[in-house]
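Note on ligand handling. Small-molecule inputs were canonicalized before submission; formal charges were left as drawn, and no protonation-state enumeration was performed. Where a ligand contained multiple stereocentres, the stereochemistry in the source SMILES was retained. For adenosine-5'-triphosphate, this procedure yielded the string shown in the input block below.
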Amino acid sequence: MASALPSPPPLAPRVLVVDDEPGLRQVLDITFRRQGYDVVQAPGVRPALEAIRQAPQPFPLILTDLLMPDGSGIEVLAAAKARSQATEVLLMTAHSTVEAAIEAMRGGAYDFVTKPFSPAEIAALSAKALEKSSIISENRRLRAQLERLEPSAHELLGAGAAMQAIGELIDKIAPTRTTVLITGESGTGKERIARAIHERSDRSKRPFLVVNCGALPEALMESELFGHEKGSFTGAGTRALGLFREADGGTVLLDEVGELPAALQVKLLRVLQERKVRPVGAAAELPVDVRVLAATNRDVEAEVRAGRFRQDLYYRLNVIRIEVPPLRERPGDVLRLAERFLQRFAAELGKEVRGLAADARRALDAHPFPGNVRELENMMERAVALASGPAIGLGDLPASVAGLSASPSPLLTELPPAGCALDEVLGEVERRLILQALERTGGVRKAAAKLLGVTFRSLRYRLAKHALSTEDTDEDDDAEATGRESSLPGGPGDDFGHRRPPLPGK
Ligand SMILES: Nc1ncnc2c1ncn2[C@@H]1O[C@H](COP(=O)(O)OP(=O)(O)OP(=O)(O)O)[C@@H](O)[C@H]1O
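Structure output:
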Protein backbone atom coordinates (compact mmCIF):
# COMPACT_ATOMS: atom_id res chain seq x y z
CA MET A 1 0.00 0.00 0.00
CA ALA A 2 1.35 3.44 -0.81
CA SER A 3 2.33 5.42 2.26
CA ALA A 4 1.14 9.01 2.58
CA LEU A 5 3.61 11.55 1.28
CA PRO A 6 4.79 14.15 3.81
CA SER A 7 3.10 17.50 3.15
CA PRO A 8 5.43 19.97 1.45
CA PRO A 9 6.98 22.65 3.68
CA PRO A 10 5.20 26.04 3.49
CA LEU A 11 6.67 28.26 0.77
CA ALA A 12 9.31 30.72 1.98
CA PRO A 13 8.41 34.40 1.33
CA ARG A 14 10.30 35.70 -1.70
CA VAL A 15 12.14 38.97 -1.31
CA LEU A 16 13.51 41.04 -4.19
CA VAL A 17 16.67 43.01 -3.34
CA VAL A 18 17.50 45.81 -5.80
CA ASP A 19 20.81 47.65 -5.51
CA ASP A 20 23.70 48.37 -7.85
CA GLU A 21 26.25 47.66 -5.09
CA PRO A 22 27.06 43.92 -5.18
CA GLY A 23 28.41 44.02 -1.59
CA LEU A 24 25.16 45.34 -0.13
CA ARG A 25 23.07 42.87 -2.12
CA GLN A 26 25.23 40.07 -0.74
CA VAL A 27 24.82 41.21 2.88
CA LEU A 28 21.05 41.44 2.47
CA ASP A 29 20.95 38.07 0.73
CA ILE A 30 22.68 36.43 3.69
CA THR A 31 20.53 38.28 6.25
CA PHE A 32 17.26 37.25 4.58
CA ARG A 33 18.25 33.67 3.86
CA ARG A 34 19.15 33.25 7.54
CA GLN A 35 15.59 34.28 8.37
CA GLY A 36 14.27 31.62 6.00
CA TYR A 37 13.38 33.93 3.11
CA ASP A 38 13.98 33.18 -0.53
CA VAL A 39 15.98 36.01 -2.16
CA VAL A 40 16.07 37.27 -5.74
CA GLN A 41 18.75 39.88 -6.51
CA ALA A 42 18.56 42.59 -9.15
CA PRO A 43 21.60 44.83 -9.88
CA GLY A 44 19.54 47.75 -11.20
CA VAL A 45 16.12 49.16 -12.08
CA ARG A 46 15.73 47.37 -15.46
CA PRO A 47 16.46 43.86 -14.16
CA ALA A 48 14.18 44.61 -11.18
CA LEU A 49 11.29 45.55 -13.48
CA GLU A 50 11.87 42.36 -15.43
CA ALA A 51 11.87 40.27 -12.23
CA ILE A 52 8.61 41.90 -11.06
CA ARG A 53 6.97 41.26 -14.40
CA GLN A 54 8.08 37.66 -14.68
CA ALA A 55 7.59 36.43 -11.11
CA PRO A 56 4.86 33.76 -11.09
CA GLN A 57 3.42 35.38 -7.92
CA PRO A 58 3.93 39.02 -6.91
CA PHE A 59 6.81 39.51 -4.43
CA PRO A 60 5.43 40.19 -0.96
CA LEU A 61 8.49 42.37 -0.17
CA ILE A 62 10.94 44.42 -2.22
CA LEU A 63 13.95 46.32 -0.88
CA THR A 64 15.24 48.84 -3.35
CA ASP A 65 17.91 51.47 -3.46
CA LEU A 66 16.56 54.89 -4.39
CA LEU A 67 19.20 56.15 -6.79
CA MET A 68 20.78 53.73 -9.24
CA PRO A 69 22.75 54.37 -12.43
CA ASP A 70 19.92 53.10 -14.68
CA GLY A 71 17.01 54.79 -12.89
CA SER A 72 15.17 55.34 -9.64
CA GLY A 73 13.74 53.06 -6.98
CA ILE A 74 10.46 54.96 -7.49
CA GLU A 75 10.07 53.16 -10.82
CA VAL A 76 10.51 49.84 -9.02
CA LEU A 77 7.90 50.93 -6.46
CA ALA A 78 5.41 51.93 -9.18
CA ALA A 79 5.85 48.66 -11.11
CA ALA A 80 5.52 46.57 -7.95
CA LYS A 81 2.32 48.33 -6.88
CA ALA A 82 0.89 48.09 -10.39
CA ARG A 83 1.38 44.34 -10.28
CA SER A 84 -0.04 43.91 -6.77
CA GLN A 85 -1.05 46.25 -4.01
CA ALA A 86 -0.07 43.51 -1.58
CA THR A 87 3.65 44.03 -2.37
CA GLU A 88 5.39 46.12 0.28
CA VAL A 89 8.41 48.19 -0.76
CA LEU A 90 11.21 49.34 1.53
CA LEU A 91 13.46 52.06 0.16
CA MET A 92 17.12 52.25 1.03
CA THR A 93 18.60 55.73 0.80
CA ALA A 94 21.67 57.77 1.57
CA HIS A 95 21.20 60.75 3.95
CA SER A 96 21.21 63.14 1.05
CA THR A 97 18.13 61.58 -0.50
CA VAL A 98 15.86 61.36 2.57
CA GLU A 99 13.58 64.04 1.14
CA ALA A 100 13.07 61.97 -1.98
CA ALA A 101 12.38 58.90 0.12
CA ILE A 102 9.66 60.73 2.04
CA GLU A 103 8.16 61.69 -1.28
CA ALA A 104 8.22 58.01 -2.24
CA MET A 105 6.30 57.11 0.88
CA ARG A 106 3.44 59.11 -0.56
CA GLY A 107 3.62 56.82 -3.59
CA GLY A 108 2.87 53.84 -1.40
CA ALA A 109 6.29 52.71 -0.08
CA TYR A 110 6.09 50.91 3.27
CA ASP A 111 9.06 52.73 4.85
CA PHE A 112 12.60 53.83 4.19
CA VAL A 113 15.93 53.08 5.86
CA THR A 114 18.99 55.27 5.66
CA LYS A 115 22.31 53.70 4.81
CA PRO A 116 24.30 52.38 6.57
CA PHE A 117 21.90 50.16 8.53
CA SER A 118 22.34 47.11 10.72
CA PRO A 119 21.07 43.67 9.61
CA ALA A 120 18.91 43.54 12.78
CA GLU A 121 17.23 46.84 11.86
CA ILE A 122 16.44 45.69 8.34
CA ALA A 123 15.21 42.28 9.52
CA ALA A 124 12.77 43.82 12.02
CA LEU A 125 11.38 46.27 9.48
CA SER A 126 11.05 43.56 6.83
CA ALA A 127 9.15 41.27 9.19
CA LYS A 128 6.60 44.03 9.84
CA ALA A 129 6.26 44.81 6.13
CA LEU A 130 5.72 41.13 5.34
CA GLU A 131 3.06 40.89 8.01
CA LYS A 132 1.20 43.80 6.40
CA SER A 133 1.55 42.22 2.96
CA SER A 134 0.11 38.92 4.11
CA ILE A 135 -2.83 40.66 5.82
CA ILE A 136 -3.60 42.49 2.57
CA SER A 137 -3.39 39.25 0.56
CA GLU A 138 -5.62 37.44 3.02
CA ASN A 139 -8.20 40.24 2.99
CA ARG A 140 -8.20 40.19 -0.75
CA ARG A 141 -8.68 36.43 -0.86
CA LEU A 142 -11.60 36.66 1.58
CA ARG A 143 -13.15 39.55 -0.33
CA ALA A 144 -12.91 37.59 -3.58
CA GLN A 145 -14.49 34.59 -1.91
CA LEU A 146 -17.34 36.69 -0.58
CA GLU A 147 -17.89 38.39 -3.91
CA ARG A 148 -17.92 35.05 -5.62
CA LEU A 149 -20.28 33.37 -3.20
CA GLU A 150 -22.64 35.98 -1.94
CA PRO A 151 -24.13 38.64 -4.16
CA SER A 152 -23.18 36.94 -7.40
CA ALA A 153 -25.20 33.83 -6.58
CA HIS A 154 -28.44 35.53 -7.49
CA GLU A 155 -27.51 39.06 -8.50
CA LEU A 156 -28.56 39.82 -12.04
CA LEU A 157 -26.34 42.25 -13.78
CA GLY A 158 -27.36 44.23 -16.78
CA ALA A 159 -28.03 47.89 -17.21
CA GLY A 160 -30.16 47.59 -20.33
CA ALA A 161 -33.95 47.74 -20.55
CA ALA A 162 -34.32 44.00 -21.22
CA MET A 163 -32.59 42.89 -18.03
CA GLN A 164 -34.30 45.63 -16.02
CA ALA A 165 -37.69 44.34 -17.20
CA ILE A 166 -36.70 40.76 -16.36
CA GLY A 167 -35.58 41.90 -12.90
CA GLU A 168 -38.95 43.57 -12.28
CA LEU A 169 -40.83 40.50 -13.48
CA ILE A 170 -38.78 38.30 -11.16
CA ASP A 171 -39.69 40.52 -8.21
CA LYS A 172 -43.37 40.18 -9.09
CA ILE A 173 -43.47 36.44 -9.59
CA ALA A 174 -40.90 35.29 -7.02
CA PRO A 175 -43.32 35.20 -4.06
CA THR A 176 -45.86 33.07 -5.98
CA ARG A 177 -45.70 29.37 -6.77
CA THR A 178 -46.30 29.82 -10.48
CA THR A 179 -44.40 27.67 -12.93
CA VAL A 180 -42.01 29.68 -15.11
CA LEU A 181 -40.54 28.75 -18.48
CA ILE A 182 -37.23 30.48 -19.17
CA THR A 183 -36.05 30.43 -22.77
CA GLY A 184 -32.99 31.83 -24.49
CA GLU A 185 -29.77 30.86 -26.20
CA SER A 186 -27.12 28.90 -24.35
CA GLY A 187 -25.15 31.03 -21.89
CA THR A 188 -27.64 33.91 -21.67
CA GLY A 189 -28.19 33.40 -17.93
CA LYS A 190 -31.31 31.21 -17.70
CA GLU A 191 -30.08 29.24 -14.71
CA ARG A 192 -29.04 32.44 -13.02
CA ILE A 193 -32.52 33.86 -13.51
CA ALA A 194 -34.05 30.69 -12.03
CA ARG A 195 -31.75 31.03 -9.04
CA ALA A 196 -32.79 34.67 -8.63
CA ILE A 197 -36.47 33.64 -8.58
CA HIS A 198 -35.71 31.11 -5.86
CA GLU A 199 -33.55 33.50 -3.83
CA ARG A 200 -36.21 36.21 -3.88
CA SER A 201 -38.99 33.81 -2.85
CA ASP A 202 -39.98 32.65 0.62
CA ARG A 203 -38.53 29.26 -0.37
CA SER A 204 -35.00 30.67 -0.36
CA LYS A 205 -34.03 28.84 2.85
CA ARG A 206 -35.02 25.51 1.27
CA PRO A 207 -33.07 23.73 -1.51
CA PHE A 208 -32.71 24.93 -5.09
CA LEU A 209 -31.95 21.86 -7.20
CA VAL A 210 -31.15 21.69 -10.90
CA VAL A 211 -31.50 18.66 -13.14
CA ASN A 212 -30.36 18.49 -16.74
CA CYS A 213 -33.21 16.64 -18.43
CA GLY A 214 -31.12 15.48 -21.38
CA ALA A 215 -28.19 14.18 -19.36
CA LEU A 216 -29.39 10.70 -18.34
CA PRO A 217 -31.03 7.73 -20.05
CA GLU A 218 -34.80 7.59 -19.53
CA ALA A 219 -34.81 4.87 -16.82
CA LEU A 220 -32.23 6.62 -14.67
CA MET A 221 -33.84 9.99 -15.20
CA GLU A 222 -37.13 8.76 -13.78
CA SER A 223 -35.45 7.59 -10.59
CA GLU A 224 -33.33 10.76 -10.47
CA LEU A 225 -36.48 12.89 -10.55
CA PHE A 226 -38.97 10.84 -8.58
CA GLY A 227 -36.79 8.44 -6.53
CA HIS A 228 -37.07 4.66 -6.26
CA GLU A 229 -37.78 1.89 -3.77
CA LYS A 230 -35.03 -0.50 -2.72
CA GLY A 231 -34.63 -3.33 -5.25
CA SER A 232 -37.03 -1.73 -7.76
CA PHE A 233 -34.46 -2.30 -10.55
CA THR A 234 -31.00 -3.80 -10.94
CA GLY A 235 -28.60 -1.56 -9.12
CA ALA A 236 -31.24 0.02 -6.86
CA GLY A 237 -29.55 -1.23 -3.71
CA THR A 238 -31.02 1.39 -1.46
CA ARG A 239 -34.04 3.63 -1.47
CA ALA A 240 -33.60 7.01 -3.13
CA LEU A 241 -35.70 10.10 -2.48
CA GLY A 242 -35.36 11.64 -5.92
CA LEU A 243 -34.91 15.29 -6.76
CA PHE A 244 -38.48 16.38 -6.18
CA ARG A 245 -38.62 15.09 -2.63
CA GLU A 246 -35.10 16.25 -1.82
CA ALA A 247 -36.17 19.74 -2.81
CA ASP A 248 -39.34 19.59 -0.74
CA GLY A 249 -40.33 23.13 0.27
CA GLY A 250 -37.86 24.55 -2.28
CA THR A 251 -37.45 24.92 -6.04
CA VAL A 252 -36.54 22.53 -8.85
CA LEU A 253 -35.11 23.78 -12.15
CA LEU A 254 -35.68 21.41 -15.05
CA ASP A 255 -32.87 22.48 -17.33
CA GLU A 256 -33.04 21.58 -21.03
CA VAL A 257 -36.65 20.55 -20.45
CA GLY A 258 -37.10 20.24 -24.24
CA GLU A 259 -34.98 17.08 -24.07
CA LEU A 260 -37.18 15.25 -21.56
CA PRO A 261 -38.16 11.85 -23.01
CA ALA A 262 -41.84 11.49 -23.95
CA ALA A 263 -42.70 8.96 -21.20
CA LEU A 264 -41.30 11.28 -18.55
CA GLN A 265 -43.19 14.24 -19.98
CA VAL A 266 -46.44 12.44 -19.00
CA LYS A 267 -45.15 11.75 -15.50
CA LEU A 268 -43.97 15.30 -15.01
CA LEU A 269 -47.37 16.59 -16.08
CA ARG A 270 -48.95 14.49 -13.36
CA VAL A 271 -46.58 15.86 -10.76
CA LEU A 272 -47.47 19.39 -11.78
CA GLN A 273 -51.20 18.70 -11.73
CA GLU A 274 -51.48 16.50 -8.65
CA ARG A 275 -48.43 17.74 -6.68
CA LYS A 276 -47.58 14.11 -5.99
CA VAL A 277 -44.75 11.83 -7.12
CA ARG A 278 -44.64 8.08 -7.46
CA PRO A 279 -41.11 6.70 -6.87
CA VAL A 280 -40.06 3.89 -9.23
CA GLY A 281 -41.30 0.60 -7.76
CA ALA A 282 -43.59 2.28 -5.19
CA ALA A 283 -47.25 1.40 -4.81
CA ALA A 284 -48.45 4.80 -3.70
CA GLU A 285 -47.96 8.41 -4.66
CA LEU A 286 -46.38 10.78 -2.17
CA PRO A 287 -47.19 14.49 -1.81
CA VAL A 288 -44.47 17.06 -2.64
CA ASP A 289 -44.34 20.81 -2.24
CA VAL A 290 -41.99 22.05 -4.92
CA ARG A 291 -41.97 25.04 -7.22
CA VAL A 292 -41.03 24.01 -10.74
CA LEU A 293 -39.03 26.22 -13.07
CA ALA A 294 -38.03 25.02 -16.53
CA ALA A 295 -35.41 26.27 -18.97
CA THR A 296 -34.57 25.47 -22.55
CA ASN A 297 -32.55 26.84 -25.43
CA ARG A 298 -34.70 24.99 -27.94
CA ASP A 299 -37.63 26.54 -29.78
CA VAL A 300 -40.31 24.83 -27.64
CA GLU A 301 -43.19 25.98 -29.78
CA ALA A 302 -41.54 24.29 -32.78
CA GLU A 303 -40.99 21.15 -30.68
CA VAL A 304 -44.72 21.16 -29.79
CA ARG A 305 -45.70 21.61 -33.45
CA ALA A 306 -43.38 18.77 -34.44
CA GLY A 307 -45.04 16.53 -31.83
CA ARG A 308 -41.84 16.08 -29.82
CA PHE A 309 -43.05 18.02 -26.80
CA ARG A 310 -46.51 17.52 -25.25
CA GLN A 311 -48.76 20.50 -25.70
CA ASP A 312 -50.50 20.01 -22.32
CA LEU A 313 -47.13 19.99 -20.54
CA TYR A 314 -46.06 23.05 -22.50
CA TYR A 315 -49.16 24.95 -21.28
CA ARG A 316 -48.45 23.88 -17.69
CA LEU A 317 -44.86 25.07 -17.83
CA ASN A 318 -45.45 28.20 -19.85
CA VAL A 319 -47.69 29.94 -17.28
CA ILE A 320 -45.13 32.74 -17.06
CA ARG A 321 -42.57 33.06 -19.80
CA ILE A 322 -39.20 34.77 -19.49
CA GLU A 323 -37.40 35.18 -22.78
CA VAL A 324 -33.78 36.06 -22.20
CA PRO A 325 -32.39 38.00 -25.17
CA PRO A 326 -28.96 37.09 -26.52
CA LEU A 327 -26.16 39.35 -25.29
CA ARG A 328 -25.72 40.92 -28.74
CA GLU A 329 -29.25 42.34 -28.39
CA ARG A 330 -28.57 43.88 -24.99
CA PRO A 331 -26.73 47.12 -25.70
CA GLY A 332 -24.81 48.39 -22.70
CA ASP A 333 -24.78 45.03 -20.93
CA VAL A 334 -21.58 43.80 -22.57
CA LEU A 335 -19.31 46.46 -21.10
CA ARG A 336 -21.04 46.56 -17.76
CA LEU A 337 -20.79 42.77 -17.37
CA ALA A 338 -17.23 42.78 -18.69
CA GLU A 339 -16.19 45.28 -16.04
CA ARG A 340 -17.88 43.35 -13.30
CA PHE A 341 -16.24 40.07 -14.35
CA LEU A 342 -12.94 41.87 -14.62
CA GLN A 343 -13.17 43.12 -11.02
CA ARG A 344 -14.08 39.66 -9.82
CA PHE A 345 -11.24 37.84 -11.61
CA ALA A 346 -8.71 40.55 -10.70
CA ALA A 347 -9.63 40.03 -7.03
CA GLU A 348 -9.52 36.26 -7.38
CA LEU A 349 -6.20 36.18 -9.20
CA GLY A 350 -4.69 38.94 -7.03
CA LYS A 351 -3.97 41.17 -10.03
CA GLU A 352 -4.17 44.93 -10.20
CA VAL A 353 -6.26 45.10 -13.35
CA ARG A 354 -8.64 47.99 -13.08
CA GLY A 355 -10.39 48.53 -16.41
CA LEU A 356 -10.67 48.11 -20.15
CA ALA A 357 -8.58 50.10 -22.61
CA ALA A 358 -10.51 51.97 -25.31
CA ASP A 359 -9.51 49.55 -28.08
CA ALA A 360 -10.65 46.54 -26.01
CA ARG A 361 -13.98 48.24 -25.29
CA ARG A 362 -14.53 48.84 -28.99
CA ALA A 363 -13.67 45.23 -29.84
CA LEU A 364 -16.03 43.86 -27.18
CA ASP A 365 -18.82 46.13 -28.36
CA ALA A 366 -18.38 44.94 -31.93
CA HIS A 367 -18.26 41.21 -31.07
CA PRO A 368 -21.50 39.22 -31.60
CA PHE A 369 -20.98 36.87 -28.60
CA PRO A 370 -22.48 33.65 -29.93
CA GLY A 371 -21.70 32.07 -26.54
CA ASN A 372 -23.41 34.96 -24.72
CA VAL A 373 -22.58 35.85 -21.10
CA ARG A 374 -20.69 32.60 -20.55
CA GLU A 375 -18.37 33.45 -23.44
CA LEU A 376 -17.81 36.95 -22.06
CA GLU A 377 -17.13 35.61 -18.57
CA ASN A 378 -14.52 33.14 -19.85
CA MET A 379 -12.98 35.82 -22.05
CA MET A 380 -12.54 38.15 -19.07
CA GLU A 381 -10.96 35.42 -16.95
CA ARG A 382 -8.44 34.74 -19.69
CA ALA A 383 -7.81 38.47 -20.26
CA VAL A 384 -7.14 39.14 -16.57
CA ALA A 385 -4.78 36.16 -16.43
CA LEU A 386 -2.86 37.46 -19.47
CA ALA A 387 -2.91 41.18 -18.62
CA SER A 388 0.44 42.68 -17.77
CA GLY A 389 -0.73 46.25 -17.08
CA PRO A 390 -3.54 47.93 -15.16
CA ALA A 391 -5.95 47.83 -18.13
CA ILE A 392 -7.12 45.02 -20.42
CA GLY A 393 -5.91 45.81 -23.93
CA LEU A 394 -6.77 44.43 -27.33
CA GLY A 395 -3.87 41.98 -27.09
CA ASP A 396 -5.40 40.35 -24.02
CA LEU A 397 -8.55 39.40 -25.95
CA PRO A 398 -8.84 36.31 -28.20
CA ALA A 399 -7.70 36.83 -31.78
CA SER A 400 -11.20 36.28 -33.06
CA VAL A 401 -12.45 39.26 -31.02
CA ALA A 402 -9.44 41.51 -31.30
CA GLY A 403 -8.90 40.76 -34.98
CA LEU A 404 -12.36 41.76 -36.17
CA SER A 405 -12.25 45.27 -34.83
CA ALA A 406 -8.55 45.87 -35.22
CA SER A 407 -8.60 45.27 -38.91
CA PRO A 408 -6.63 47.90 -40.74
CA SER A 409 -8.14 47.38 -44.21
CA PRO A 410 -11.72 48.31 -44.98
CA LEU A 411 -13.99 45.73 -46.60
CA LEU A 412 -14.80 46.90 -50.10
CA THR A 413 -17.42 45.77 -52.55
CA GLU A 414 -17.12 48.80 -54.78
CA LEU A 415 -13.94 50.23 -56.18
CA PRO A 416 -13.17 53.60 -54.53
CA PRO A 417 -12.35 56.52 -56.88
CA ALA A 418 -8.69 56.30 -55.88
CA GLY A 419 -8.57 52.53 -56.49
CA CYS A 420 -7.55 49.96 -53.89
CA ALA A 421 -4.90 47.40 -52.97
CA LEU A 422 -6.75 44.31 -54.24
CA ASP A 423 -4.59 41.72 -52.48
CA GLU A 424 -4.96 43.48 -49.14
CA VAL A 425 -8.72 43.78 -49.45
CA LEU A 426 -9.12 40.12 -50.46
CA GLY A 427 -6.75 39.08 -47.68
CA GLU A 428 -8.86 40.96 -45.16
CA VAL A 429 -12.05 39.24 -46.34
CA GLU A 430 -10.30 35.89 -46.00
CA ARG A 431 -8.97 36.71 -42.54
CA ARG A 432 -12.36 37.78 -41.21
CA LEU A 433 -14.18 34.74 -42.57
CA ILE A 434 -11.55 32.40 -41.09
CA LEU A 435 -11.83 34.10 -37.70
CA GLN A 436 -15.61 33.80 -37.76
CA ALA A 437 -15.44 30.13 -38.74
CA LEU A 438 -13.03 29.43 -35.86
CA GLU A 439 -15.28 31.36 -33.52
CA ARG A 440 -18.25 29.28 -34.55
CA THR A 441 -16.42 25.98 -34.14
CA GLY A 442 -14.86 26.90 -30.80
CA GLY A 443 -11.38 26.87 -32.37
CA VAL A 444 -11.65 23.40 -33.98
CA ARG A 445 -9.86 23.89 -37.25
CA LYS A 446 -11.05 20.73 -39.00
CA ALA A 447 -14.62 21.89 -38.55
CA ALA A 448 -13.72 25.45 -39.52
CA ALA A 449 -12.14 24.18 -42.75
CA LYS A 450 -15.33 22.31 -43.54
CA LEU A 451 -17.42 25.42 -42.91
CA LEU A 452 -15.22 27.38 -45.28
CA GLY A 453 -15.25 24.69 -47.95
CA VAL A 454 -11.46 24.28 -47.96
CA THR A 455 -9.21 21.39 -46.96
CA PHE A 456 -7.59 21.28 -43.55
CA ARG A 457 -4.18 21.77 -45.15
CA SER A 458 -5.37 24.79 -47.02
CA LEU A 459 -6.78 26.31 -43.82
CA ARG A 460 -3.48 25.66 -42.03
CA TYR A 461 -1.63 27.45 -44.79
CA ARG A 462 -3.98 30.42 -44.62
CA LEU A 463 -3.78 30.60 -40.82
CA ALA A 464 -0.01 30.71 -41.02
CA LYS A 465 -0.23 33.39 -43.72
CA HIS A 466 -2.35 35.58 -41.43
CA ALA A 467 -0.26 34.66 -38.37
CA LEU A 468 -3.43 33.52 -36.64
CA SER A 469 -2.66 30.19 -35.04
CA THR A 470 -0.04 27.53 -35.01
CA GLU A 471 -1.39 25.02 -32.51
CA ASP A 472 -3.76 22.10 -32.97
CA THR A 473 -6.67 21.74 -30.55
CA ASP A 474 -7.34 18.33 -28.99
CA GLU A 475 -10.21 17.90 -31.41
CA ASP A 476 -7.94 18.57 -34.37
CA ASP A 477 -5.48 16.04 -33.02
CA ASP A 478 -8.25 13.47 -32.56
CA ALA A 479 -9.57 14.11 -36.01
CA GLU A 480 -6.13 13.77 -37.51
CA ALA A 481 -5.37 10.63 -35.55
CA THR A 482 -8.59 8.85 -36.52
CA GLY A 483 -8.85 10.32 -39.95
CA ARG A 484 -12.37 11.57 -39.28
CA GLU A 485 -13.59 15.13 -39.55
CA SER A 486 -14.71 16.79 -36.31
CA SER A 487 -18.43 17.26 -36.27
CA LEU A 488 -19.72 20.79 -36.35
CA PRO A 489 -21.49 22.10 -33.29
CA GLY A 490 -25.26 21.98 -33.57
CA GLY A 491 -25.90 25.70 -33.14
CA PRO A 492 -24.08 28.96 -32.89
CA GLY A 493 -23.83 28.89 -29.11
CA ASP A 494 -22.95 25.20 -28.76
CA ASP A 495 -20.18 24.40 -26.37
CA PHE A 496 -19.05 27.98 -26.30
CA GLY A 497 -16.81 29.03 -23.52
CA HIS A 498 -15.74 25.45 -22.87
CA ARG A 499 -13.19 25.67 -25.61
CA ARG A 500 -10.97 28.58 -26.37
CA PRO A 501 -10.40 30.13 -29.76
CA PRO A 502 -6.73 30.02 -30.71
CA LEU A 503 -4.34 32.75 -29.64
CA PRO A 504 -2.79 34.87 -32.32
CA GLY A 505 0.56 33.47 -33.41
CA LYS A 506 3.21 35.92 -32.27
N1 LIG B 1 -26.82 38.79 -15.67
C1 LIG B 1 -25.73 38.12 -15.30
N2 LIG B 1 -24.89 38.64 -14.40
C2 LIG B 1 -23.76 38.00 -14.05
N3 LIG B 1 -23.40 36.79 -14.53
C3 LIG B 1 -24.20 36.22 -15.41
C4 LIG B 1 -25.41 36.84 -15.86
N4 LIG B 1 -25.99 36.04 -16.76
C5 LIG B 1 -25.21 34.96 -16.88
N5 LIG B 1 -24.14 35.05 -16.07
C6 LIG B 1 -23.06 34.05 -15.94
O1 LIG B 1 -22.88 33.45 -17.23
C7 LIG B 1 -22.70 32.04 -17.12
C8 LIG B 1 -23.81 31.32 -17.91
O2 LIG B 1 -25.07 31.56 -17.28
P1 LIG B 1 -26.18 30.42 -17.10
O3 LIG B 1 -25.56 29.09 -16.77
O4 LIG B 1 -27.22 30.93 -16.19
O5 LIG B 1 -26.70 30.38 -18.61
P2 LIG B 1 -27.77 29.40 -19.26
O6 LIG B 1 -28.58 30.25 -20.18
O7 LIG B 1 -28.50 28.64 -18.20
O8 LIG B 1 -26.84 28.44 -20.11
P3 LIG B 1 -27.16 26.97 -20.71
O9 LIG B 1 -28.36 27.11 -21.61
O10 LIG B 1 -25.92 26.64 -21.49
O11 LIG B 1 -27.40 26.07 -19.54
C9 LIG B 1 -22.74 31.71 -15.63
O12 LIG B 1 -21.42 31.62 -15.13
C10 LIG B 1 -23.46 32.90 -15.03
O13 LIG B 1 -23.08 33.11 -13.70
